[in-house]
Amino acid sequence: MPDLNLDPQVLCASSALQECGEAVMFEVLEYGKLASAFALRYDNVAVAYLNRCAHVPVEMDWQAGQFWDMDKRFIICAVHGALYDPPRGECVSGPCLPGARLIAISLSEQGGQVYWYPSKRFQPVF
Q1: If you average pLDDT over residues 54-82, what whole number do you get?
Q2: b vs e for 99-112, b when ≥16 Cβ sit within 10 Å of the residue's Cβ?
Q3: Which helix H or strand E contains 28, and what residues bound it?
Q4: pTM over 0.85
């Protein structure tokens, strides 16, 4: 098994994540399998999630990088209409089971850059 690279990974410039704007898309290896992920800014905080609905495991964006409902208040699954609270990823409306949530990917911002943090679950794609 290769060594795990746990160094923070540059995702984008902080300015690329506009408040309730288009998501920055990126790919990760989830337990060794390629998976789509996205980062958004809500209430001035950058968050990232796996691009996978908690109801049925399908990608949620209706167009690449488009995850907001019409009011730009919730992350929406374009397939099922499930609504998710942006800072917590918790499903607040729709067909999800109680307590369902999006799978978070750790982020930080430093020096005008957004970084994501690999883990045992998520590794960079090289």
Answers
A1: 93
A2: ebebbebebeeeee
A3: strand 24-30
A4: yes
